[in-house]
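In response to the reviewer comment on reproducibility (Comment 2.3), we provide here a single inverse folding case reported in full, input and output, so that an independent group could reproduce the run without further information from us. The structure tokens appear first.
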């Protein structure tokens, strides 16, 4: 995998893949960055290259003057995530845009979530574009791939997790979603489930959730983008799980 961008390469050097990072190619300007000078002083092979050469290696003009060769992304197992006591997990149902996946992973890592679960098919995987969009956060975050998101949610519920699906409308013929600040997210592991860009939560995935929650929409737009919704809900849940917070203030 060819990583590109200053944050993705810098975080790879201090994350789980540090031992797999081989050569780094950098422009003269990027080589003056303190973190890259330290890497070179510690024996990392840093090659001088032009911006054109770097773009040719990584395939993107968004390289910020640096790219690096690293090993494959080390996915976690879903079972290991379910073993974290009172964890906050984010499960994504066919999120396909690498920018959205990267942004959600960055939010999850910054918020201290135990991990993100994605589908193996019809969904974005952790690619160099996702690493760039996450600003390198995926190097410190556990990301698991599962064959079927609904089946994973069933396993999560058997493991004692509460699963909350984000939906502005709820299931056809089912109860309406409750405002996100109504559930008490404390006392157990929580899985927040968000749907894909085009369709939201698929019916079977929505049906596998304990409850559907929604954010308030005061304007004319029908919904938030999935990355924005993830950020609002993750931090909303964190706030509700904070010590001293009354469930019904």
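Designed residues, in position order:
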């Amino acid at each position: 995998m060819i990583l590109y961008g200053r944050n993705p390469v810098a975080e790879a050097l201090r994350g789980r893949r540090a031992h797999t990072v081989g050569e780094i190619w950098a422009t003269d300007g990027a080589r003056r960055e303190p973190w890259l000078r330290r890497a070179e002083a510690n024996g990392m092979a840093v090659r001088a290259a032009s911006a054109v050469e770097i773009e040719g290696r990584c395939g993107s003009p968004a390289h910020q003057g640096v790219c690096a060769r690293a090993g494959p992304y080390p996915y976690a197992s879903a079972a290991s995530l379910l073993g974290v006591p009172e964890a906050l997990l984010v499960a994504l149902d066919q999120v396909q845009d690498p920018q959205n996946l990267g942004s959600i992973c960055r939010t999850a890592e910054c918020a201290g979530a135990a991990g993100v679960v994605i589908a193996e098919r019809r969904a974005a995987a952790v690619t160099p574009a996702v690493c760039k969009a996450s600003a390198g956060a995926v190097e410190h975050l556990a990301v698991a791939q599962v064959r079927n998101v609904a089946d994973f949610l069933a396993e999560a519920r058997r493991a004692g997790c509460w699963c909350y699906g984000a939906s502005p409308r709820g299931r056809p013929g089912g109860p309406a979603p409750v405002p996100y600040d109504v559930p008490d997210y404390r006392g157990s592991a929580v899985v927040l489930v968000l749907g894909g860009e085009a369709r939201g939560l698929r019916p079977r995935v929505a049906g596998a959730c304990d409850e559907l929650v929604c954010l308030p929409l005061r304007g004319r737009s029908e919904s938030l983008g999935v990355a924005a919704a993830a950020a609002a809900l993750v931090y909303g849940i964190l706030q509700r799980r904070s010590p001293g917070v009354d469930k019904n203030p």
